[in-house]
Amino acid sequence: MEQNQEIRPECPEKPKMATDNLTNAQASPTKEAATPSNTDGKIDKDVAAADPNPTPTAKLQPSESDEEVDLPSISESLGEEESSDLVTEPQSQNPNPLEPGPRARKRRRRKRFFTEINANPDFPRNRRNSVGKELDSEAITAMSVGFPVNSLTEEEIEANVVSIIGGKEQANYIVVRNHIIALWRSNVSNWLTRDHALESIRLEHKTLVDTAYKFLLEHGYINFGLAPVIKEAKLRSFDGLEPPNVVVVGAGLAGLVAARQLLSMGFRVLVLEGRDRPGGRVKTRKMRGGDGVEAMADVGGSVLTGINGNPLGVLARQLGLPLHKVRDICPLYLPSGELVDVGVDSKIEASFNKLLDRVCKLRQSMIEEIKSVDVPLGEALETFRLVYGVAEDQEERMLFDWHLANLEYANATLLGNLSMAYWDQDDPYEMGGDHCFIPGGNETFVHALAENLPVFYGNVVESIRYGSDGVVVYAGDKEFSCDMALCTVPLGVLKKGGIGFVPELPEKKKEAIQRLGYGLLNKVAMLFPYNFWGEEIDTFGRLTEDSSTRGEFFLFYSYSSVSGGPLLVALVAGDAAERFETMSPTDSVKRVLQILRGIYHPKGIVVPDPVQALCSRWGQDKFSYGSYSYVAVGSSGDDYDILAESVGDGRVFFAGEATNKQYPATMHGAFLSGMREAANILRVARRRASESASNLAK
């Protein structure tokens, strides 16, 4: 290949950047062109200039040991509700016209992006001015999937996709890589062939096309998912050789994705699952009451957090599932039931954001001067609040506490447990675009992924023995011998020592397991005989006078638009999430009803008893012992990478949200970790096959 010649896809003109988000309707397959436009949706051009208050996003929100509370309705129905269709951009309306409407803006669910702290060379400050000029739509599509603008990923470097890092060959490879990604993303229901990828690239660059296509295919960036043609495809990874066998421990998203990918590569695979169902911390329960009222409730992971580049968004397109955008308006109510004053609300939200800014600037200076320092984020925030006199009167303090509770929800733990230095280390990688609900619940994905997979339920893995000759997985009185094993159990199980490893895990990995935090979030899902809160909003919050209970039912999600019935879910975060697990389900539901009636009865709105209610108990679930991971004081993002490392010279591998440094605590993070480890297992299997062939030749 000529080193001084750049590659350009052969097309008459550069396509315009797509600006539509994938929301309410299935993204219909677009006609493939030589250089397709990005059909995944609007990409944030400037991460540094992104909305500082992103829509609440969902992390894995589990519950296996959820408890039901059946309460017959004691109120008469207000009549038949109008059907609520999924809408792309619903018009925001005030549910109570007698009061001023809440300010239309997004409530922060995750963390802010601080460019001065998390400096990322691939997202420069001046990107807002240069991205439209320097990057075409294909590069933007690749960015949405997680590829850097003008450099290689660690995976690509390890795969030796170019002979020399930097220079024309790398630049040309990146153009080819981006083109192939965008080409498949333009129609995710088709199998993209190597020849099709080559059609719009000059023939002299065939080697680069071959390299990029192979890398993207084997690492699960193209031709993955649940479209019929993709499910039927089989790769010839072991022509003439006996394929290795792999035991996958855990049938959550990571395990299911890895198993499906490994099977398509030609491996022999079986999955061991301790529960009697697939999905792990993704769980959907069907709720029903009298008069045919029913709904599907996600008591685990619930929201697709950013649709641009999200692999779950790809699955939704392939399955023809519409997506409901989580609307931005989130009214807040005082304990008296009155709406929070818009001016006070705006003031405290701005002050809260400024305090976070100040904490992060302090963090940067401390890291630069002391090199190694960490304190709890909660302590730093409280110190700055006192120094700057923020939220000194009662209403302002209640509002400030609500924002603290929202941050504890984002991280599934008390702010006093969070690392000030690294709590938001994953922010630069956040996926852009709308946050969405899936109609019918996320188990739609789970059941589709588990279909026809060899999953053996009710097999609780107790220990894994590994050595140079292979792996033996022990589940009760059963033994499963294999060449390699993939462990996808939650971090909570590893912390509890739920699975024994022989020999023991390396000290470095054991220390990372203990350093990383693993938190708790709980839910109360309530199916009502009718929707009394209105169809205009997807979220609303309530304030509390007692700071120690700030996380108790502080945020409500309305699933009426997507669940099939009038379903309301109350969240419990922070200290309240732990206390919640000691309360009886009946008392918990009574407390939620007391709060709801305090909000709506002053407006003359009757709050009926729910026809059914569910209370999660994820901390008591022996298959998870909690909800999702966070960066604790003394930990860092490096611990996610350590947890992801294989042991035994490539005998036992690890996947799951807590092994994904870029996307921890999310459903798509678990999904992507499964893809990552399938590629790693293939790499090791090929290495062993090559070594075996060399030994035989001697």
Automatic annotation (TrEMBL):
Pfam families hit by this protein: Amino_oxidase (PF01593), SWIRM (PF04433)
Domain SWIRM, residue spans: 132-233
Gene3D superfamilies to which the protein is assigned, alphabetical: 3.90.660.10, FAD/NAD(P)-binding domain (3.50.50.60), Winged helix-like DNA-binding domain superfamily/Winged helix DNA-binding domain (1.10.10.10)
Pathway it works in: Amine and polyamine degradation; spermine degradation
Example GO biological process: chromatin organization
PROSITE patterns: SWIRM
Required cofactor names: FAD
Bias (Polar residues): 20-40, 85-96
Cited InterPro entries: Amino_oxidase, FAD/NAD-bd_sf, Flavin_amine_oxidase, Flavin_monoamine_oxidase, Homeodomain-like_sf, SWIRM, WH-like_DNA-bd_sf
Classification via PANTHER family: FLAVIN MONOAMINE OXIDASE, LYSINE-SPECIFIC HISTONE DEMETHYLASE 1 HOMOLOG 1
Chain residue ranges for the region called Disordered: 1-131
Biased composition (Basic residues): 103-112
GO molecular function terms noted in the UniProt entry: polyamine oxidase activity
Protein transport is among the record's keywords: no
Keywords from the UniProt entry: Chromatin regulator, Oxidoreductase
Protein's recorded name: SWIRM domain-containing protein
Composition-biased stretches (Basic and acidic residues): 1-17
Source organism (scientific name): Brassica campestris (Field mustard)
Highest taxon above the source species: Eukaryota
Positions that bind FAD: V461
Family: Belongs to the flavin monoamine oxidase family.
